Model the fold of this input.
Amino acid sequence: MGRVVIWVFFGFFIFFVVTGILSFYSGSPIQPGSAFIDDHEIIDELEVDVTEEMIEEINWEVTPDFKTGNYMLRGIEKKVGFIDTGFIANQGNKYMWHFWGDQLEGNLSVVAVNENEPYTLVPALSNGEDTSFMWSTSELAGPNNRADAHLPSNMELTETGKWALLVFLGDNYIDHIVVEVE
Done:
């Protein structure tokens, strides 16, 4: 009986060690926050995987602006950016996203992460009526402002400080853009 208990204990120990190692190396997804942010309902489900590696790679310096056509965009030149009218906590605003490249398919998802730990995932996209947040919006439209594709959106962030916007098209992680919220 004593040997059986030892073997069962040893089996569970090995199981937990192996699953812990596998989850560490597989880039296990970070879970989102609650279904409500303040009084705003989150109206859809997070359908992209945000890994610890994505969070660890964030440089918390505000992403610089660049010029395309007649507009200044915040983002990564020739990859992704949006016309940045600034962010004020708890105030939604319109933002025009621009994308460059050949693989521009799928719905736009924008996952926000505040620089303060513990990191919590929240949706940055809103319905524009200051009542609901969403993880994803529609697919991209055609070329605009010298970009290969574009999409208007509404975004709102609920706290001051630096936020990383993790940008996805479909399941494809594009990059992150760091903004300062006043």
Observations:
- The radius of gyration is 20 Å.
- The longest helix spans residues 2-25.
